[in-house]
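does this look right to u?? guanine version
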Amino acid sequence: MVSQRIKDELKAEVSEMKAKGITPGLAVIIVGDDPASRVYVNSKKKACAEIGIYSEEYALSGETSQQELLELIEKLNKKDDISGILCQLPLPKHIDEKAVIDAIAPNKDVDAFHPVNVGKIMIGDYDFLPCTPAGVMELIKESGIEIKGKECVVVGRSNIVGKPMTMLLLHEHGTVTVCHSKTRDLKEVTLRADILVAAVGVPELIRGDMIKEGAVVIDVGMNRLPDKRLVGDVCFSEASEKAMAITPVPGGVGPMTIAMLMKNTVKAAYLNA
Ligand code: GUN
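got this back:
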């Protein structure tokens, strides 16, 4: 798996860094008891341990005030053994996510959510790439398809995935179209895609008849159905009849997101050394 290869490479790099006296450290903050967030945070801590990255978890109660959370971030911004800070989203409703993202020091913002980092990505001059879009780019490269000149369609326009995804594909010279809930004829657009990235959070929205024969399909969706099944934004069984390459859910993009977070944490350790 690509994610394992990246983690193996990082493990070797971290071992060399430690010999030079630099140890990457990641602080992971989780507020409340969202079960999906708990699973993600556990995976992130496990990956740190596997690679040799020092990690600290701050599991705060769902009643934590915004002020308390901001004070914790302020403390972590100044903490020398912490190179990266990640506050797992979503946050409880009484906390303003934007205020929290803005509080994280840009050079420790391993999610690349801070406006400074978002702006740098827009220009193409960045320290950190957002983990999920960066992982998707690695998977596209792995498929062997060249992005340059290709029709790329991104379904979804979130700040976390859709918007940065669009920029990264554009940097690689793709012809990018972004679709969203107000798009008039979704199928007409998705059928043009040589590379289709689905990141809308609607279970199996993308059906087989919306995919061009031979397309590369990347499914960022993680949707829990009432019967507890986990499905993506793409109907895998139908889409795999059409696609040249397609990522499964779970196991496709998810592990890549974590590998990219590890990569950003190593980068942050160099930046903050
Ligand atoms: N919630 C869902 N995806 C992410 C992510 O990439 N980073 C953080 N911090 N929270 C998330």
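The longest strand covers residues 25-31. idk if thats expected tbh
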